């Protein structure tokens, strides 16, 4: 007799891998004629901006640019000055060979080392390396057995739940607006910003993201070394074309500013601020699929082959803000803090004190003017530990897809101590992988030996916790017969307490 097998495709979890790579930095920066010559170097920073990611079997290609920013003290009392350079890069990473139907790549990292020296007042050499931490997450389509029929087959069904990656989009967009200075700026020392998506509307194949961008600008007026600050809010409304997106998806969208330019206005007109922003959208579609977890025949010998499956679920989304504080002594008690910056290391998950936490290492750098009117840089390391509202056990297989940003950073010098207060915003999702065992294949063998007609009932002493299906399989009788013979409630799957069971003597 032929066994009928019904199959369907399951969006199963694929390969997860993390690899490290290095972006070397070696460049020469020429000081423009409109900038003051270099008196003293204060600090240099480097941060990659990844514009393109291409995944293929065994390879991952990253394309973007490394933004190198140098802060220095200008000659003749010019105060704090800044110059920068964008260095394009293409990085090809070797991966294990694996197949996939959907994927997402997250790029994080931190500066490994960075040295800069002034060759002359108009030329700076920069040498260093940025350490990339690249996480690759994939899904695959796996055929699973959803039902069996004929051949006296009995089956135990299980419902697998998870999410399918419906869309992964990263798009560079431009947001523009006016910025009005109280007087013409002689130098713009730093522009930073925070953005948030306040409203996300999903349509078939499209998403509409609305939000605002808050930009802070540190600048100096002509003839005045004092730093001034200016803040401006820019609303944005972006329509995104997203293949595979539908209204039933669970979706998040994160906006990250990656570049700023200011064009001076003509006459009485305000200056024009242009912001480049990376919009990152992730969408998952929930699914449920019924699969055969176990099976046997009441008429034939059966040989089931198990199949191990991994599914992914969305354990939770993340949109939280926490405040970090720290302090440390300064070499000059009379230092005056001028500016401060924060850089985040990779975001990790850790189980501490019976709770899941998001962790990261935060490097805070502060610029200060010492009592000799020289500019110095000071560093303070903060440890981020953000408790998560997750019910997953300690041994759960979790991984984050999230992004960290400095929502507000303040550094002050109080009695020779650097005091840091940092508000950290975390956005993203936490995904969980779960493993299940189902029937991968099954064949019917020889017919079973007919039951002894002299035996109408058998007695089996079941222990607490035994599965009724396993007992029925042992004696090649249907679970329905076992229920009827023992007056057990419909749907009973597990024997709750030790008891004597009657086993029918003939198969179904």
Can you offer a commentary on this structure?
Strand 11 and strand 12 (271-297) form a beta hairpin. The chain has 508 residues and is an all-beta fold. The protein contains two helices and 21 strands. The strands form seven sheets. Strands 14, 15, 16 and 17 form a four-stranded antiparallel sheet that branches. The chain has a three-stranded antiparallel sheet with strand order 1-6-5, with no helix packed on it. Strands 2-3-4 form a three-stranded antiparallel sheet, with no helix packed on it. It has helices at residues 468-475, 479-485, and strands spanning 4-30, 38-56, 59-74, 79-94, 102-120, 123-149, 153-179, 185-203, 206-221, 227-241, 250-263, 271-297, 300-329, 336-344, 348-352, 355-369, 375-387, 397-414, 417-447, 457-462, 499-504. It has four domains: 1-150, no CATH class; 153-297, no CATH class; 307-448, no CATH class; 449-504, LysM domain (Membrane-bound Lytic Murein Transglycosylase D, Chain A, Roll). The mean pLDDT is 93.
How far apart are the first and last residues' alpha carbons, in Å? 15 Å
How large a portion of the residues is in β-strands, by DSSP E? over 45%
- Describe the biggest sheet? 4 strands, antiparallel
Count of spatially separate domains: 4
Task: Please count the beta strands (DSSP E, at least 2 residues each).
Answer: 21
Considering DSSP H and I runs of 4 or more, what fraction of the residues is helical?
under 10%
Multimeric state of these chains? single chain
Chain-averaged pLDDT:
93
Low-confidence stretches: none
Series of secondary-structure elements, N-terminal to C-terminal: EEEEEEEEEEEEEEEEEEEEHHE
- The DSSP helix count reads 2
What is the structural class? mainly beta
The outline comes out as elongated
Q: What is Rg?
A: 31 Å
